[in-house]
Amino acid sequence: PRAPQCQVCGRAVVIEIPRHRAAFCAEHLVDHIRGQVRHAIDRHGMLSYDDRVLVAVSGGKDSLALWDVLLDMGYHDGLYLGLGIGDYSQRSEQVVSDFAERRGVTLHAIDLATEFGYSIPDATGVKDRSACGVCGLSKRYVFNKVALDHGYDVMATGHNLDDEAAQLLGNVLRWQTPFMARQSPALAASGGLAKKVKPLYRVGEREMAAYCIVRGLDYIVEECPLVGGNTVHHYKDALNELERHFPGTKAQFLYGFLDKVRDQHFASEADEGNDDGVVACGECGMPTAPPKGKAAHNGDSVRCAFCRTQQRVLSVVSTVR
Ligand code: SF4
Ligand code: ZN
Ligand code: ZN
Question: Which residue has the higher pLDDT, 318 or 321?
Fold first, then answer.
């Protein structure tokens, strides 16, 4: 059979994308990805020209590629959170700071242990909490805090099509409707916190890896050593198996939910643009929702989920050390 050719220019291809029935050379893969990101941004009103945007960068392919794409659009600032996961975290930080230096852009680097007294491996000793659960909570908290402290309007993360479809599958299988309500490529600012956007939600994992290679972006290929505790993995495997038989499954599943289900049935459940009842955490001052069924002003001060979790991790750390 004839070697596949780029559908735009006829040159040799670097990637075929069955769900688009498409094949691209290096140059036109880059165009394709930029186009998908622009489409995502327009469709969901993610960014406007005067927004101050902060990109959360882990050192993995998706977030570095996102930073690369957004740099071309004039959004320059990145945030790296050091999780303290041994060599993996050290190499990640190196990759991210090298990128920032080469491009001459602003990087906010925060170290969890330095700022908050614990690292993610410390959380493995906490009962009834997974390290990944504590990690996710810590990331959300620190991203929000840095955005708030430095006056950013929008937080952008590198979640791709595979991530979002897998997350949705996990939520649907357990009918976790509150999580489904919050699953959106763009969540409006609420309660004093920045807007959150996922400009890569239309681009698959393979395409992101190919983009990084073509653009010469050095990224951390190895996975986090704690990933075994992350259930999303299994949902990704299941979707990849389906995608192999039925190209387009992931995209149909995710876009169908966003277009036909979420807005009609869940949009009112999400707290978008709804600042009612948000109070300041009595400990750290960050905005938080008061516990359900309790008035916010009953005298007890409210502590946010992060402060409660931090205390539990710190108590384990102090017993061990
Ligand atoms: Fe954090 Fe778990 Fe992801 Fe590792 S695998 S970075 S611990 S969420
Ligand atoms: Zn081409
Ligand atoms: Zn707090």
Answer: 318
